Amino acid sequence: AYDTAAFEKMFSRNDNMDVDMMSQPKANKALAGGQFSRYEAVVFYDMWQDITEDQKEAFIDLTRKGVGLVFLHHSLVSYQQWEEFEKIVGGRYFEKSYVNDPDKASAYKHDIEMEVSVMDPGHPITRDMNDFTITDEGYSDISILPSVKALLKVDHPHCADKVAWTNEYNNSRVVYLLFGHDNKAFQDKNYRRLLFNAIEWSAQQSN
Length: 207
Prior knowledge:
By secondary structure, this protein is an alpha+beta fold. The chain is built from 6 helices and 9 strands.
């Protein structure tokens, strides 16, 4: 459950993009049917576990075609039993119901204030951005692959140090943004700037 109206409002305010919204499980069925291939980028805001072998192959096929992939916040929790998903996104949140040892599960904390530092002000996603503060949900004890390129970092006991990164998988540009739990983030100008910069970069519309 999330503030659907506020989330969709972010996209409706952007005149530079034609956007379709699709929820699960309809989205994965459309994915397997090849409907996602017509998009330049796909933004994931789901936290979904059910995925068939055909849907996995269709997911991988998107990356062969170079479709941009942007993963937001709790999409890091998706597909706990699909090992390749972690390689696509560049990380994973370990949901406690899917790990053998509860001590190895990731954790979350609502409404924490994070001082965010821009690690690469020259990257198209973060270009000319200044450090900023955001109130959002933090994730800790997550997996972040060493191969990703970190863009933003925080220093908070209830959040991983890297909170935005890029990754490459086959021919796709991939972005993960840890922020985006609720309307406090949706209304944040820095979050919206990051989101749309990430979409444009993943769609290979900026260098």
